[in-house]
Design a protein that fits this description.
Layout (H helix, E strand, L loop, with lengths): L7 E3 L4 E5 L2 H4 L8 E6 L11 H4 L1 H4 L16 H18 E12 L6 H12 L1 E9 L13 E8 L17 E2 L19 H10 L5 E4 L6 H8 L3 E6 L2 H17 L4 E3 L2
Parallel strand pairs: 2-9, 3-4, 3-8, 5-7, 8-9
Antiparallel strand pairs: 1-2, 1-10, 4-6, 5-6
Helix pairs in contact: 4-5, 6-7, 7-8
């Protein structure tokens, strides 16, 4: 399988990191080259641009709020286009029976999770909306936000790639708590345990896991720690470099290292 030249890779070519716009990278990846997708794309809510979310630390009594930390691509139209790209490219990139697992907002007033579910079902076969009970109580006024979704769709209608043998996996995740980010953290960073759940269920050792919006690298670290191969794409230089350092530490602890390929 021949992938485009990455910006950073490990010595064995099992981790490929691209500092790129997903709209440019995904069409260049080979057909049927990945075994699952787990990603947390921009939700289109302009999070961290203004309002309560931009002033999270102050609102929660955690100190004086820092400046807004806008997320690239988080405007409504651009986020829609980025998710449409995932729906267009994932069926081509995934092997038969493989799954695309995509984080999405929960509740309202914007029913984003509803639109995205229908878009995934048009592109593939919608499998499940998994509720992440992320506690503690989140922002809001009426019905304060306490959950998000992970939307799961499968390529093809045959047997799903499913590697759990306990028969006890529910569609509600209750014991993985959200990260309340400090000022130097990614504003929407996910705990590593969240992607780990889905990577264990839908992939096996040495499978390729793709995250086209890897942010600060939670999915990347989860995949590497579970012995999967990983392809990650991030447009923001700051968070790309953060993920590179994060994975470098993980690989170093395992006797490997990242190297520049540029």
């Amino acid at each position: 399988m021949k992938f485009p030249q990455p910006d950073w890779s490990d010595e064995r070519g099992r981790v490929l990191l691209y500092r790129a716009d997903a709209r440019e990278l995904l069409p260049r990846l080979p057909d049927a080259s990945v075994d699952m997708v787990f990603t947390d794309p921009p939700y289109g809510h302009n999070n961290n641009n203004k309002g309560l979310i931009a002033n999270r630390e102050s609102a929660l009594g955690l100190g004086v709020a820092g400046p807004p930390r806008p997320i690239q691509g988080d405007g409504p139209q651009e986020a829609h286009e980025l998710f449409a790209l995932v729906c267009q490219q994932a069926p081509r990139l995934l092997a038969d029976g493989s799954c695309c697992c995509c984080c999405g907002g929960g509740g309202g007033p914007d029913p984003q999770f509803g639109r995205w579910s229908l878009m995934l079902d048009d592109a593939m076969t919608f499998k499940q909306a998994v509720v992440w009970d992320k506690g503690p109580m989140g922002m809001g006024w009426h019905y304060r936000r306490s959950y998000e979704m992970v939307l799961v769709a499968q390529k093809g209608k045959g047997k799903c790639r499913w590697y759990d043998s306990t028969h006890r996996v529910e569609n509600v995740i209750r014991n993985v708590r959200k990260i309340i980010p400090a000022k130097d953290q990614h504003p929407t960073e996910k705990p590593i345990e969240l992607p780990m759940r889905f990577i264990r269920n839908h992939s096996w050792t040495h499978h390729w896991v793709l995250d086209p919006f890897m942010g600060s690298g939670s999915t990347a670290e989860a995949a590497v720690r579970l012995g999967r191969r990983f392809i990650g794409c991030e447009i923001d230089r700051k968070w790309f470099n953060h993920t590179r350092r994060r994975l470098g530490d993980v690989l170093l602890s395992r006797g490997g290292r990242l190297k520049s390929c540029a």
